[in-house]
Amino acid sequence: MKYGNSIAVRLINISAYTSTALTTVFTSILLYAIATRTPEEMRHYRVLLLNYTIASLILSLLFSLCEPVPSSSLREVNRPANDSGISYVIYGPIVYFIEPFYNQILSAILVGVLLYTIMAIPLSFVFRYFAVRSKRYMEWFASLKVLFPIFMLNALIGSIAALFMCVGNMPKDEDDEDTTKISSWSHYYTYYGDNPNIPLFGNLIHLNSNVYYTILIFGICLFISYATVITFSMLTFKAITSLRSISSKQSLDAQRHFLVLLIFQSMLPAIFLVIPITVVVITIACGMLSTTINGTAIGLMFYETVFSVLIDLFGIVPYRKMLFSKFTSIATLKERTAWSSVINH
Fold it and tell me: What architecture (CATH level 2) is domain 6-338?
């Protein structure tokens, strides 16, 4: 079957696979650096760094598997009753080898992991403030008896958001059938937009009013997270300034460097998540819904995890030195090999 949006789907696939490959490679290097190159003074920060890094890797893998693109069912020819008007299309490889019902579950889990990752960002700012203010408070906050309940709370909130996504799914008529009797699941990844004569590729997921609870949870968590980021950034800068007369310049510069690093990292969701979603909302609101435009916008979201890992890898000095030393040793080895071959000849 020839699909009307095949080019856009290929672009989405390429973007997802490329970003996931890059994230996997850079995350593997970062995890090695965390395990082997984290200095003693940073050992308390290691748990927070691992938490955010692993969550970002899982998020990237789910993105490449699902490749969800927000859409609107307002103009669809087959729009079901009680539909909220909010829908999304799954373009990822899971439409080929996972049963249709589980497609939607995985995409809902993706939403939960995304929310968990966003809520993990403010923890580093709180830690950085305690690191400047008091070593005792820093060690208390970085202990597992404090962090583990926080991680569990974030996971619970993410699970609730994912649950509302699952409950909000409006099953297709075929979902009631015995899938073992269906020779092909092609009808699950073929749908029609506003033109009944042009088939489109993707597993279209309609959502009922329960999706608004997911959006509400996201909005509240985003507000709390970034309010925490802004508040503790200001408090930390103020604390660094107040310690200027009693602490060494090198120590204060290191604290300021870490804080600026965290600020850049916290801006990534706003750049790579908020802007693409805004583009999608505007195109839908203005009646310019396009798989190519929306797919390109969402394709940018996949690279949020890539840049997040790179900021840690190149921004944290011990890890950056490890990378440069590896590159230098490789270059030196190649140079020696070249000279030895010249001499031997």
Answer: Up-down Bundle (1.20)
